[in-house]
Each structure stands twice: as structure tokens, then as C-alpha cells.
Write a structure and sequence with these properties.
Length: 389
Amino acid sequence: MRNATTLSILSLFLLAGCGAASARRTTAHLLEETRIVASRDASGQYQFDTYSAEDLFRQGTALQADAHCSDAVVRYDRLVEQFGASRFVSPALYNAGLCLQQAGELDASAAHYLRLLELVPDSPDARHARLQVTGVLTSRERWDEALASADVLLSREDLASDERLEGMARRAQALFGMRHLEDAQRAAEDALSYYRTRRGEEVVADEYFAAAANYVLAETLRGRSEALALPSTEVTAQHEVLERRAQLLLAAQRAYFDTIRLTDAHWAAAAGYRIGSMYETLYADMTAAPVPPPSSALSDAALALYRDEYRAELRARVEPLVRHAIRYWELTLLMVERTGVSTEWAERTRAELDRARNLLASGVLPDRDRGGALGDPRGAPAPTPDAAP
């Protein structure tokens, strides 16, 4: 689940009012194990600390509510270790995972969710724990584990439509992270088909995971295009490869535009950044491609001149690609400013925009990062625009 902030609801039932139901809960509470720990004070007198699983759970939730995450997790972990049979084990592990996740300690968060699923797989918290850990594993790029977790999640029959879409999008992300491009493309298309065919109460209102799936679809098309290296043969053969690559890049560009149209600020910014980076990457690949051999034998001096003239003509022909990159990065920054949403993609766009402007001024392509993370995205190329975002 995205941006979850609610503590396990099991922490609330102890606060219920009077009546037969609450009386039964109180009886269950009285059966909870209690620990008594004896210690001596400075005068040698015994001091007794008496506590139960409920006491530790209440302390943990209070500390968590006050944003004292590390202290809260100490209470939750102590509860799990000392009261392993308690009904509070599941909500304690879930709340600890959530607390650590919000604090950015993702590996520790995943460990708590996974322990919950191992110790109490039939808990009411298990579905939410599975959703959370799948997202955390994706964020950490632990792709094999994320894929396995997504498959387990999608095998459940009690998922709401938004939860199933989340699982499908996470599965597509994991497959893309593993570089299984064709499988990732199919998984992304399946997620988008599911999203578009929901009706009535099953309609998914939050477009975040639809946009995530659409972004993966665009990335797979970009990835397939990048796999087409320009050969060091005659011009005709290079042009054939460029044509195939261009077709995939235009398809990727359309998919990035579709991602933007889903209006989620994060994925729209990521897609806008990628459209720009496609042009700069294509420029880099074309200018770095092997010079095709001349049609007839040349002297060393003539061959050097031939290569210089080829590079100069090529540079003049592909310079518009950099101008397209600048255009789309400028549009992306305008879009980010309109939404007012802070995203790392805006910073990356600003950095690339500066580089591209320097490139036009200098005529030399600067080094650039052509990769990236997928829970937050990766990189790509494409020729001429067929639409504006």
C-alpha cells in the first residue's frame, strides 16, 4: 500500500466501551501473560517491574505516535521476543515495519513485515504486511524477492481492486528490474488492462500504480531499442538498424506521454525526464557509432578527411535531437512547478538541462548517467516527436 500511515487496527479494540463484546475482550486480556522482573536498587532493596504484552504494545504505539520510532521498535521487538504467543505479536511487527519504513530504514522494515508473515501468516495484518513488504523490496531493488512477494500477493483472493493493481504494477517493476523486458512488458500491459476494465465499485481512483505500470511499459520499449547497437558496416546497414530503433523509440515516447496523461505527479515528472533523455541518448549513440567504410579505397590522408567530414555532417544532422531534449526537459520543469509536488526527477531534469545547453554551446557531449532506479525509474532515447505532453 502506498503512503500508509495507520497503525494496526488491532491496537484500538482494547479501547472499546462497555457491553458484552468488550467484556469478552477484557476476559481475553486477563489471560495475557504478565512478566515480573526483579532488580535491586542502590540500597539493596528489591524493585519489581511488572508488564504484559499489552503494556509494551501501548508504550510502542504512544512512542510511535510521538515520532520516537527507534524507541517504539524496541518495545515492539521486546514484545515479540518475550510474548511470542500473544495476539499483540502481529500488530507489533506490523507497526514496527511501518515505523521503520517511514523512517527510511527499509531493510529493517522488510525484515519485520516478513517476520510477521512467517510467525502469524493468518493474521488480519498479513494482507497489508504483504502489500507493504512488496513495495519495500521493490524500492530496495531486491528484484527476485519483490517478484516472489508480488506473486504471493496476487494469489490472494481478498484483494481490493486498488490492491490488486498495486501488486500487478509491482510485479511488472520487478520483472523490468531483472531485465526480463518481454515479461515486464506483458505484466505492465496486463496491469493497464485490469485498470481500464474496472467498473462500478471496482474503479481504481488513485492513478499512481496505473501510471507506474504505464511507465514500465515505456521503459521496456526503450530498453529493447537500446539493445540495437549500430553496426560498423556500410551506411545502408546502419540506416536499417536506426529505422528499427526509431520505431521502438517512438512507441516508447507515446507510452511516456500516456504516463503523463494519467496525471500522477511523480510518474509524470519521471516520464517527462525520460522523453528528454531519449533524444540526448540517441545523439550520444549516433555520434559515437562507428564510421561506415568508404565506398572505395582512400589514402590515409583522404580517409582522415572522410571521417572528419562524416562526423561533422552527422553532428549537424543530429543536433536537433539535443534541442528536442531541451524542449521536453523545459516542459517537464514547467509541469513540476504547476503541480507543486517535490520530486527527485525535477532535480535530475535541471541537471540534464544544464548539460544539454552546454552541449549545444560546446559541441561535445558530456558524460551522463544513463541508468536509474525503477521504484523511481531508468533511462532511454527516441527520434522525432509525434505529440506534445
